[in-house]
Structures are given as structure tokens and as C-alpha cells.
Write a structure and sequence with these properties.
Layout: H1 2-9, E1 29-30, E2 41-43, E3 46-48, E4 50-58, H2 66-80, E5 83-91, E6 98-104, E7 107-114, E8 119-126, H3 135-142, E9 147-155, H4 159-171, E10 180-183, E11 188-191
Antiparallel strand pairs: 1-5, 2-3, 4-8, 4-9, 5-6, 6-7, 7-8, 10-11
Length: 193
Amino acid sequence: MAFNDTLFQLGMDLTRSSTTQKEDLGTPSSCLPVVQSSNFIERDGIKFAGTHLVIDLFGAKHLGDLDIVRTALKSCVEAAGATLLHSHLHHTIPGKGINGVAVLGDGHISLHSWPDAGYAAFDVFMGGNARPHAIVDVLRHAFSAVDVVVKEHKRGEEIELMSSRLAKAKQSTVKRAPVVRINRTAKARVRAA
């Protein structure tokens, strides 16, 4: 019963109605056609699945206002040229922080906010022709952030290296392919024992 009550409080129990915000299943906001997730991007000679941004806002305002957050998310989607499929936002505690997600045609934007600390954490993944970096200024202005920190990762950029390793592993008598770790700071490959 406690599990079901928890889901209900988070607005995730579909068997009964909730006081949290209803999921936005309106007409998709389509700036670009939906790109199939199997399409990899090739940019500057690098092939990858999509761009993953981790965005932290500091000294931000209006982080507990559902209407402002909802409007900001929709503006982010439009600025990036993405396709909004649906979104869900809810307060962690009434009148306090907001958690939520915007599900896109080829990615997502998720957020967690702490209004009392003026801090918000955004996780953004976009593939295809979307422009995820365009949302940084939208977020900065929508929440009047004093500082913004952005970290970027090109997801799946090791696909060609791993595909060739998998092909070799299938041909060899070795039953297990070696683990490869990429050290992002030094850009060095480290082979695990």
C-alpha cells in the first residue's frame, strides 16, 4: 500500500486521480520531423548518437513556479528545434522544488529544482538535427540565473571502436571482449585487466 501511495503522491499512479499536475499530452510541438533514434549524427568527423548536456543553474529564481517552468521547457524545445511528445512536472513538496521531464521525439529534458538554494539541475539529451546548446540561454534568461555550468558528452562516440572490437571478438576464440574505459580528462584509452 505504501508503494502505491508513493506513486500516487508523485503523480505516477495511473489507477486513480492525483492532485499533481496532469501529463501534457497535447498536440506535439513539432519544429523538426522526428528523427529515428537509430540514426547516428556525424559532425566534425565524429559519429555519435546524440549530445548529452548536464546543465546546472546557480542563483536562479522562479524554480518553484510550475507555470514558469512549463513555459521555459516549451521554449527550450522550440529553441532547440526539437519535437515535444509530452511532459510531466510536479512539486517535490507543495510550493517547493519541481521535478519533471519533457519527452522529445529523439531525446529528453529532465529537471530537478531547489528554489530555497536557487539551484536547478537539468539533464538534456538530443539526437538528430536538434540544437541542444540553444537551450542554455533560454534557461539562463527564464530563471534569471547568475551562473550556469554546462558539461557535454557525445553519447556513443565510441561506436566505431566498439563495433570493430566486437567484430574481432566474434571471430576470435576469446569468449569475452576486453572492457575499454575512456578517460575523458586525458582522452586516453585505458584497457581493464
